[in-house]
Amino acid sequence: MDRACYLDPHQARDREPDDYQNLLGDAIERAFAAGVHDLEGLVLRLNDARVPSPNGQPWTGELFRREMKRLGA
Fold first, then answer.
1. Are 17 and 2 in contact (CB under 8 A)?
2. d(CA 37, CA 59)
3. If you average pLDDT over residues 32-47, what whole number do you get?
């Protein structure tokens, strides 16, 4: 098989993720693995896991959306 035909999961990455991004990503993956697939449940999991938010306040749906947009930029 020609590997060039397949998506490279890191193709858009311009650098390695930092500790914050790894912590956030790991918490999101754990939530999905536990069957959480809605924003409200995800935000609850992030707060329960004490994943720090960018502004130091508890996670909210709006804050999560803004942070995903910022990290994806």
1. no
2. 16
3. 97
In single-letter form, the type of residue at position 54 comes to P
pLDDT, position 42: 97
Contacts of 43 (CB under 8 A, 6+ apart): 59, 60, 61, 64
The pTM score is 0.78
Q: Reply yes or no on whether the pLDDT at 65 is more than 70.
A: yes
Contacts 24+ apart (CB under 8 A), 43-46: none
Largest CA distance in the chain: 48
